[in-house]
Each structure stands twice: as structure tokens, then as C-alpha cells.
Design brief:
The chain has 403 residues and is an alpha/beta fold. The chain has 17 helices and ten strands. Pfam families: Abhydro_lipase (PF04083).
Amino acid sequence: MARRRWLAALAITVSVLFGDIADSFDGGGHPKQQLSMCAELILPAGYPCSEYMIETKDGFLLGLQRVSSSSYLRFGSAPQRGPPVLLQHGLFMAGDAWFLNNPEESLGFILADHGFDVWVGNVRGTRWSHGHISLSEKKKKFWDWSWEELALYDLAEMINYINSVTNSKLFVVGHSQGTIMSLAAFTQPEIVEKVEAAALLSPISYLDHVSAPFVLRMVSMHIDQIILDMGVHQLNFKSEWGASLLVSICDSGLNCEDMLASITGQNCCFNESRVAYYLEQEPHPSSSKNLCHLFQMIRKGTFSKYDYGMLKNLIVYGMSNPPKFDLRSIPKSLPLWMAYGGNDALADITDFQHTLKELQSTPEVVYLENYGHVDFILSLQAKRDLYDPMIRFFKSLGKSSSI
């Protein structure tokens, strides 16, 4: 009875939080009328912010934001921009993830106040990106991608664009899926040559030791394949269908009393009173194919391109199995800083150690025993635990010694 009451409460919460919002979304899960991310989140906090739109090689239009220190507004001076840093968000999130706490607690604001030239990435399909040059978001083909395309097209184009605008190599900061994208992209010489260094929060390349009960239940039920077989290509948990899916998985016998912990691990340090505010921004849509690719990694223990099955793999790749992303091809000369948590049920310690063994370099590593997956972007202590050490790492490389 208690579980049934909780499920009813979840359904009511979803309705209250998402019901009115869902009515204002178009077929791709994007608000029909919305402020820009700069106007909604950055400028009201007192930070200069400008919007950019870039086009990937396969025609997707991505939103980029550029953020400067609030001191430029306070003192009326023109920005003296430091080294560029790109912030790359995780799955079902977007660039707003770096600005959800107060300015003194949010990495995007903290980096700007340290003088970095902050660029904020938003991958295809998220609310701050801008669709496609020819494809409607209601079409299957619009959602025919996974993190592989996010790495080799979206992240690649963001890095190319920032490099061309600033005429400088850049720092890359990724969280969760943003680290999968980064590690895959860094195996490509034409991408990594434009990167000065990278900081990876909850770094993931292997996923076969994921321990999150909710995720493992979805994997065992083959939810990813069922969704694709049903012809659902956009995965939007702010839709009525997406919310019902969550409820049905909990109703299958899974204890969802703390749904966030059942997905991410027990988080120690974020402000639970702000959850309603977080949910105003998150989650963002992604593709069902993307979820399927991630679940392939959990089932197979591989860090590879999308597996279409033997016959189609032969057509697409010329081999029966999809090619692997070889972490050993990431240049030893690329400085890496990585932070992982003891309570992270998605970026498991065993998988993280697997990643470290395959890298040529020896990254600088920070381990936080009580951190779960969400703490790395929302912890109230993250400035002390993570961001200050990260900034010291960046500054130690010499390029940022002037800030």
C-alpha cells in the first residue's frame, strides 16, 4: 500500500510539475516560446552572456553560450578574456546544468569569475539547441543518433568553432555523458589537437559495473529495445508518455522511494529544497537510440560505436562488430584531471579503474568517497571539493597563469 501511495504521489507530482509545461512544448519537446538560456539563467545573475548558433556537419543547429565575469558589468569594463573553457553536460541535461545553484556554487559562474572565457555546450535535441537545417523534430531521422554523433559531430564542431573564434586551444570540462563524448572525441587527432587539457567529472567510458537499481531494471527489461520497436524515437521524460514509463518501471516491483538515488547513487551534498527548481530546467530530451547505445555498453562491457547487429554492422562498418574507441590513442601529452565518487552508481569505481588502465597518460585524480553522480554538478561543497582543485590544475599548465 505504501508503494502504491508513493506511485500515486509520483503521478500527481509529474502532473503538477510537467502538466502545464508539456502543453507548451512542440513535438520535439522544445518550448514553443521561450527565453534564451542567457536571458533566463545567466543575465539575471549579473553575468554578461551572448548566444551563438553553430551547424554540425550533419545539419544540426546547436546553441552555444559565452559567459564572462560579473565584474565586467559591475565596473563597466570591456571583457579581458582569459583562456577558453567548454562545459559539456551529461545525459538528459543541457548547458543550464552548470548554472543551477547560486553563482558562488555553480561551476559556470565560478570559472567566469576566475577570468576564464566560458563557453557552454548544448547537444542536439536539447531545449537550448535549435533543431536541424531541414529535418523536423517530429521525424524519426531527426532522432537517429547516439552519443557517438554527439562526440564526433556536436562536440567536434563546438571545439572547432571556439578554437576558430578565440584562436586558442581550449580546456574541456565534461560530466557523465559529457565525459563519454570527450574521451571518444579525444581519440580523433583532428579534434584533440585543439584541446589544451580536460577535466572529467564522473568519468565514463565503460559501464559494465553500473549498480543503479533503476537503470539495471530498465536494462533487464530491454526497455531501450522495446521503445525503439514501438517507434518512439524521442525520449522525453517531461512528456506524459515519458512520465508514465517511469511509473510503470517502479510498478514492476522496484523500490522507487528515492528515485534519484536509485538512478545515480546516494548523493550527499546537493540542496534537496531546490529540487522543484532543478526540475524546471531538467530533464531535457534525448534519443531512444542514445539510450540503447548506453545500454549496449552496460550489457557488453564495451566502449564502441553503435551496434546495429551483425548484418548491418557489415554494411555500416565493414565488420561484424562495431569498432571500439581506443583510449590508448588519446595522446599521452594531453593533460587530464578526473574526479570520481564512492557513491556513484553510474560511474563505478571498477569501470573508472578500467579507463585509467587503458590511458597512456597518468591523469590527476580526485576521489570523493561520499559523492554520488549528481553531486559533481550540484553539490553545495563542490567549489571546495572539486572546482577549486580543477582551477588550480588548469592554472598549473601555464596557459592560464595570467588570470
